[in-house]
Amino acid sequence: MNAGRQLFVRSIQDFSTFVHASADERKELVRQGLMMEPELIEAYRIRGSFLDSRYHSWQCFEFFDSAGTRSYIRFRLIPGDRGPERGLPEPGFRAEGAPSMDPVPDDPRAPDFLRQEWIYQVKHSEVRYILQGQIHPEPENVHPDHEVLNPARAWNEIHYPWRDLCEIRIDEPILDNEAVSALDMTPNRSPACIRIPLATSPTQYASLGHARALVYPGARAVRAAAEKPQNN
Fold first, then answer.
1. CATH code, domain with 109
2. DSSP structural state of residue 167
3. Is residue 95 within 8 Å of 37, Cβ to Cβ?
């Protein structure tokens, strides 16, 4: 999951173009509309804590109910106190195609201060999140490039409200780097009622989720075989 309600590109082809572009080229991608500046800015957080933000899945999944009816679902994780989104950039901020903010040279905080603060909260306070789902009925004539699958567009929260699924309480952090490195996150690992929409082209909206399912296992194997220590 990621900060911001939606992604700043629409397909895996656009994402690949962004990844391989220089800083100046990314500014041009914004001007061309391939990268969307408002959506990119919304993902920025001037953070004081990992507990301040809401985290979204961006891509949607196929969801089948007990009767076999298909709809679509997105997920988000919000702070346990249901507080407002915090840490947004000041009005007038411009990302200009940069996916993250450069470190401030005179910042006195440690490079991993967010991680250390989160560990401290887990050890000495209450860390709770609420997992929510947003369900969208299946549109007529749905296809891999249907607007409902667009990762760059948030669904209307009035028409498709967020529903509580469960509460997550964390009372012990994973401190061992080897344990973290051994974790295997695979998009295909889900209940039978939740599936990844499939694409037939890298330009389609469904291509982002489909590509993740194809790439993650291989990337995980390469990373596991890399020389230690690994940066988590």
1. 2.40.180.10
2. E
3. yes
Q: Rounded distance, CA 194 to CA 71, Å? A: 10
Q: Would 230 be classed as within a structural domain? A: no
* CA 53/CA 44 separation, integer angstroms: 10
Kindly state whether residue 231 falls inside one of the protein's structural domains.
no
Residue 167 resides in a domain: yes
What does the alpha-carbon distance between residue 189 and residue 183 come to, in Å, rounded to a whole number? 13
Cβ proximity of 12 and 211 under 8 Å: yes
- Give the domain range for residue 68: 2-225
Location of structure tokens 């999140």: 129
pLDDT, tens only, 37-95: 999 998 888 767 888 889 999 999 999 999 999 999 999 999 999 988 888 888 888 89
Asked if 185 contacts 232 with a C-beta cutoff of 8 angstroms, the reply is no
Q: 82 in a domain, yes or no?
A: yes
Among 192, 193, 196, CA closest to 207: 196
Q: How many domains does the chain have?
A: 1
Q: What is the pTM of this model?
A: 0.89
